[in-house]
Amino acid sequence: MAVTPNKLKRTSMVLMGAAVAASTIVSVTLPASAADEGEGHAAPSGYTVKTFSPVGTESAPDDVTRMGDSVYVSFQNGVGPLGEPSATGITASTVQQFSLDGKPGKSWQITGKVDGLTADPEHHRLLLTANEDGNSSFSTLSPDQAKPLATYTYSGLTHGGGTDAVSVVNGKILVSASAPADTSAPAAYSVALEGTTAKLTPLFSDNATAKAANGPRAGKETTLALTDPDSNTLVPASAPRFKDSFMLDAQGDQQLIFASNPGSGKQTLQVLSVAQPLDDTVFAAHSNQTLLVTDPKDNKVFSVTGPFKAGQAVSTVVPDAGPAYLANLDLSTGTLAPIKELAAIHPKGLMFTDGAEDNSHDGQRSE
Fold it and tell me: What is the pTM (predicted TM-score) of this model?
């Protein structure tokens, strides 16, 4: 998920499925102030960082999700936001399965750039969207089925763009309406799967009315003017604010939209302005969860344990100048405090999860 002008999406996704050999977890080298190199070495601050070893030739890991005892990562392989081939002619993304200790399992090749990936544990399947800027489509992937992939054509995609992140909130499938043609279009949709059609219903619009959650107009109604709906997630009950809301990140607009009772007649919106553009934001459901982080720059997936607190919000900050970094997000003020001990990581996709089996979406990263 990235800031790109005018995101549209639609693609047919094709399964090729393959298994890969097992490998091990190795530790990541942190800055000298954080940790010495070594297997699972704890930094002075209490963080321990390990790496899921790379698999094959896939590159550019993006979303990460968990279902049962498996972690799934989408590798975009250089495919363009409209599904254009990479510089080397690659036209498919890879969804790679890992065990909780980092050993690779099955992998699937899926045509296009997989932008949204989340678990739907109730139906034991993964939900995927492809091509954030156009030629977009929706798919499900049931890893244990003989024919695991089902592809759907969108109906009701009216915002002039595509779809990006996907969440499951109270049994509803919700997707971001990326790359809108203007600021009056839907910002997010709910998705109903009917036959081979993914029927979209607008959740709220880019110019919806929301209550300002911070800043000089805090508590007052304001009219949104979103241009870059991007990632999304579910805020857990442990969060100090916006509990149980659906959160949509408008990355280029530097705003987070929180929808309570999404898709119902009681839906209300709040908007939190943030100090920098954000990609993913995730929330710890309880203390001492593990943070999984994809790093497309170094082509790695990191597993981070440390002093994470219940309700803590961690964001991928993507400044206009400079590399991406991890930061703690203050839900009252919208300020961002870099996590200096983890400065060696160049984050993108995020997920909080437990060490033991956790079937709750992807550890509150419902995207």
Answer: 0.87
The rounded distance, in Å, linking the Cα atoms of 187 and 177 is: 5
Q: What count of residues does the chain have? A: 367
Which strands sit side by side in the sheet containing 221-223, from one edge to the other? 221-223, 209-212, 268-273, 255-260, 246-250, 229-234
Q: How confident is the model at residue 260, as a pLDDT?
A: 97
Give the helix/strand (H/E) hosting 187. Answer: strand 186-194
DSSP 81-118: TTS---TT---EEEEEEEETTS-EEEEEEEEB-EEEEE
What residues form DSSP beta bridges with 95?
Answer: 74, 108
Using CA atoms, how far apart are residues 176 and 189, in angstroms rounded to an integer? 7
pLDDT at 355: 73
Residue type for position 307: P
Q: Is the pLDDT of residue 22 over 90?
A: no
C-beta separation of 331 from 240 below 8 A? yes
- Spatial CA neighbour of 50 closest among 300, 281, 296: 300
